């Protein structure tokens, strides 16, 4: 026994080797060391950015040490681990989170103060790695925080893109402008390149068939014709108040041969580098689509590259423990984050059959027991289907295996298919439509032992509508695990004043790892003194946002007595930012018609919108343009003054969200019911005392259940009623069913009030014609609820009571609760906290 086991308070210092002492003088020495030796700079050219880097390297040292200890311990204990495969991780800034999780904030503050820097400013030097688009990638990042905090043995696997999600700015016409996100132009100190782990990944080629001498059975072997190398880059994930430190392993692609020397010698310099460029292309760019399929061959290569490297690594680690391949399902629970990593299923099967020489039955059993799949969207345009032709060319053996899986699966389906082949056709993994396509979600369902949706309503839609046939076929496979968010980043770190108030009120900070404790805030909901403190923190956070808007956008907005109403998320038709801006036009026109006297009674409001549109999603880009045009007219109209403003905040990111969410009074989650699988930012707002203005969709419903219906501004119809409304729109024409108020707003846009008449024609034609997202139908209830928001804000006692009760009910929205459910219902893993050792006496 190397570790002496004893129960002691969780102190990071205990485990560190002596040279990593954490008294502030020690930290200063470490910082100077990195400044001089790692960067290297000298103490005279010491600047904020260098200080940030040097400080970050000291954190990295600590995490490296802890992660070595963690891996060693997990290996000794042979614990089962979760492996989360995701093509996106939206991590946000690292330094503050790590410093807080390691409980070293005060000491770093002191250390840096001695060098003339405020820790807060040093945090601001960090750029925000954007290796994800939206909810799916941010969820993965919240999960990593929870897994480490609660001592779960777990790995994240993903891709290290050279260029993350594009940076957005707004052009002079109000349009979205995209720029490459060159996030690796400066060192990223939290990523450790692992040069020892280089895995060859094959593509293309042919299949050899041969007879196995032992069994006399037919065997197959794939001979790829091209190889690239997957190199590991590790980001170490600290947990809050624990030594357990997990790993997020991101693969980057390198060529097998860096330079073709023959070509180089002949003077063909371009040709000489071709190999390298082709390989690097694979992990070059994150595809900027959210809730939509890119459908490009390179994306497919990315997907295979990710899963092939990951499975190789998992099996390598299994064998390092001297365990056999049969033990794989007891060694790792592999979660497929949406269908992007579905190729892991045929890839594992290939390894088990062609390399490990297992029988089909054995291989299939292991595969199904290893994988589980999370569905994150039901939008048809987001359900991946890849052409059989493309797969056969790129991965011939995998296509053969997909056909075999399908064959064996359909054999069973045929037995219950009473409707002459109808069901078989519907459930086939291969679809014959405009092309022959593999339905990736079908493959993921068949190859996994559990499939989950991400909110109650979403899982019900999966079971009863989208995957109904599969649910009848596999009645125990579908489960719900409602999403959650990490309270470390989304309350403790981003809203320090509220965190302090909660801790001092509850006389404990236990809520940070057990969010259910927030329920004790209920008894303070009507306490006036507490309400005042609560409201004062909101004002403090709003002032920060007000200053940001002034500095970055040169727009003056008010703060006291002004509602900050926010909608921040990807721009998508189903999320209905269009309905939001149409309502802004409505209120604008309404105020313009008011007398002086009436204007004094108007509740002041700022409507903020932020979010990126996929560069190829033209409708979404038009919506951004319209918002900016409307904002320009309203904000510059002297008749409106400070009564109402519309502010579009460019370049939405995790970091910007950390500023916006604590400053929000009311946040809009107004998707067409049935379209938003869950939503997770809604949870973050509630946690920070923001109120929800929302439809009966996704996690809004569960927020209502937990925080109380009376504490949410809900409006509109249920998802079950949506199809009828859509049908009516189709039959009668949406224009004929549209309320007059909205008709006249469309008329004003068409007259060219917000730019050339033609500019927004496409947007308006959709609303007038089919109105797929039923904006016309929901417009009046939406406006009414917004009015209700405004009049409630004028009753502070009621408002703050709602705000406090919302927060008090949000315990259940923690990703800690979510992960516990995954661990118990799906993965079968348990926490494995590192034992505490008494440190050798810390050196100076
Ligand atoms: C998103 N899906 C959904 O649109 C959100 O409602 C949900 O909260 C998050 O996933 C996390 O579950 C996607 O990003 C994708 F890629 F599936 F479309």
TrEMBL record:
Family matches, as SUPFAM superfamilies: UDP-Glycosyltransferase/glycogen phosphorylase
PROSITE patterns assigned to the protein according to its UniProt record, in alphabetical order: PHOSPHORYLASE
Domain of life: Eukaryota
Uppermost EC category: transferase
Required cofactor names: pyridoxal 5'-phosphate
Tagged with keyword Transmembrane: no
Pfam family, one: Phosphorylase
Entry keyword set: Carbohydrate metabolism, Coiled coil, Glycosyltransferase, Pyridoxal phosphate, Transferase
Keyword Transmembrane helix: no
EC number: 2.4.1.1
Catalytic reaction(s) noted: [(1->4)-alpha-D-glucosyl](n) + phosphate = [(1->4)-alpha-D-glucosyl](n-1) + alpha-D-glucose 1-phosphate
NCBIfam families referenced in this protein's UniProt entry, alphabetically: P_ylase
Family: Belongs to the glycogen phosphorylase family.
Job description of the protein: Allosteric enzyme that catalyzes the rate-limiting step in glycogen catabolism, the phosphorolytic cleavage of glycogen to produce glucose-1-phosphate, and plays a central role in maintaining cellular and organismal glucose homeostasis.
Protein's recorded name: Alpha-1,4 glucan phosphorylase
């Amino acid at each position: 026994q190397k570790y002496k086991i004893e129960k002691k308070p969780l102190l990071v210092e205990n485990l560190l080797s002596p040279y990593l002492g954490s008294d502030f003088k020690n930290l200063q020495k470490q910082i100077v060391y990195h400044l001089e030796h790692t960067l290297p700079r000298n103490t005279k050219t010491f600047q904020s950015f260098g200080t940030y880097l040097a400080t970050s390297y000291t954190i990295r040292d600590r995490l490296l040490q802890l992660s070595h200890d963690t891996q060693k311990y997990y290996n000794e204990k042979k614990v089962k681990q979760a492996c989360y495969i995701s093509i996106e991780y939206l991590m946000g800034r690292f330094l503050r989170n790590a410093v807080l999780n390691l409980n070293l904030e005060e000491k770093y503050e002191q250390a840096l103060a001695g060098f003339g820097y405020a820790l807060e400013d040093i945090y601001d030097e960090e750029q925000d790695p954007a290796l994800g688009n939206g909810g799916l990638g941010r969820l993965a990042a919240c999960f990593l925080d929870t897994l480490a905090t609660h001592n779960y043995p777990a790995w994240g696997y993903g891709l290290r893109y050279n260029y993350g999600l594009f940076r957005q700015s707004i052009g002079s016409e109000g349009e979205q402008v995209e720029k490459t996100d060159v996030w690796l132009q400066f060192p990223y100190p939290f990523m450790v390149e692992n040069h020892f782990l280089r895995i060859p990944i094959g593509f293309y080629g042919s299949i050899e068939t041969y007879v196995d001498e032992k069994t006399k059975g037919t065997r197959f072997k794939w001979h790829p014709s091209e190889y690239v190398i997957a190199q590991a880059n590790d980001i170490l994930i600290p947990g809050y108040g624990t030594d357990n430190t997990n790993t997020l392993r991101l693969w980057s692609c390198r060529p097998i041969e860096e330079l073709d020397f023959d070509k180089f010698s002949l003077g063909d310099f371009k040709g000489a580098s071709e190999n390298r460029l082709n390989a690097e292309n694979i992990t070059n760019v994150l595809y900027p689509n959210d809730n939509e399929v890119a459908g490009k061959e390179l994306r497919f290569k990315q997907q295979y590259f990710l899963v092939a490297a990951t499975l190789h690594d998992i099996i390598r680690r299994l064998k390092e423990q001297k365990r056999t391949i049969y033990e794989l399902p007891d060694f790792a629970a592999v979660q497929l984050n949406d269908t992007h990593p579905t190729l892991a299923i045929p890839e594992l099967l290939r390894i088990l059959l062609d390399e490990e020489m297992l029988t089909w039955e054995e291989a299939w059993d292991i595969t199904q027991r290893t994988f589980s799949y999370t569905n994150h969207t039901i939008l048809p345009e987001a359900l991946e289907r890849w052409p059989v032709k493309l797969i056969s060319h790129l991965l011939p053996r995998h296509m053969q295996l997909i056909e075999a899986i399908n064959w064996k699966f359909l054999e069973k389906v045929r037995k219950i298919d009473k409707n002459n082949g109808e069901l078989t056709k519907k459930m086939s993994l291969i679809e014959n439509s405009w092309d022959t396509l593999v339905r990736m979600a079908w493959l993921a369902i068949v190859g996994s032992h559990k499939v989950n949706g991400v909110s109650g309503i979403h899982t019900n839609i999966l079971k009863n509508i989208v995957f109904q046939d599969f649910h009848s076929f596999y009645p125990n496979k579908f489960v719900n695990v409602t999403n959650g968010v990490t309270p470390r980043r989304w309350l403790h770190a981003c809203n320090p004043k509220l965190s302090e108030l909660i801790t001092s009120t509850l006389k404990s900070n236990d809520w940070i790892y057990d969010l259910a404790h927030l329920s004790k805030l209920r008894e303070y909901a009507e306490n006036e003194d507490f309400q005042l403190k609560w409201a004062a923190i909101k004002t403090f956070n709003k002032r920060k946002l007000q200053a940001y808007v002034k500095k970055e956008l040169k727009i003056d907005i008010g703060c006291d007595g002004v509602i900050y109403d926010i909608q921040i998320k990807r721009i998508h038709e189903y999320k209905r930012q269009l309905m939001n801006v149409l309502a802004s036009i409505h209120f604008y026109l309404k105020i313009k018609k008011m007398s002086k006297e009436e204007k004094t009674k108007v509740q002041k409001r700022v409507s903020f919108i932020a979010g990126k549109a996929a560069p190829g999603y033209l409708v979404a880009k038009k919506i951004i343009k319209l918002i900016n045009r409307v904002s320009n007219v309203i904000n510059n109209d002297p008749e409106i003054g400070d009564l109402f403003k519309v502010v579009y905040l460019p370049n939405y990111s995790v970091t910007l969200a950390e500023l916006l969410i604590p400053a929000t009074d009311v946040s809009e989650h107004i998707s067409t019911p049935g379209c938003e699988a869950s939503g997770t930012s809604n949870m973050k707002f509630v946690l920070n005392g923001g109120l929800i203005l929302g439809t009966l969709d996704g996690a809004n419903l569960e927020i209502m259940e937990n925080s109380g219906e009376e504490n949410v501004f809900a409006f509109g119809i249920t998802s079950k009623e949506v199809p009828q409304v859509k049908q009516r729109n189709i039959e009668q024409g949406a224009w004929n069913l549209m309320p007059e108020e909205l008709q006249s707003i469309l008329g004003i846009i068409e007259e060219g009030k917000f730019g050339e008449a033609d500019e927004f024609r496409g947007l308006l034609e959709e609303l007038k014609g089919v109105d797929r997202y039923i904006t016309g139908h929901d417009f009046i209830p939406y406006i009414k609820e917004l009015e209700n928001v405004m009049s409630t804000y004028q009753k502070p006692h009621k408002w703050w009571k709602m705000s406090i009760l919302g927060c008090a009910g949000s315990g259940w929205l923690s990703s800690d609760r979510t992960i516990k459910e995954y661990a118990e219902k799906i993965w079968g893993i348990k926490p494995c906290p590192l034992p505490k050792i008494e440190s050798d006496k810390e050196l100076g």
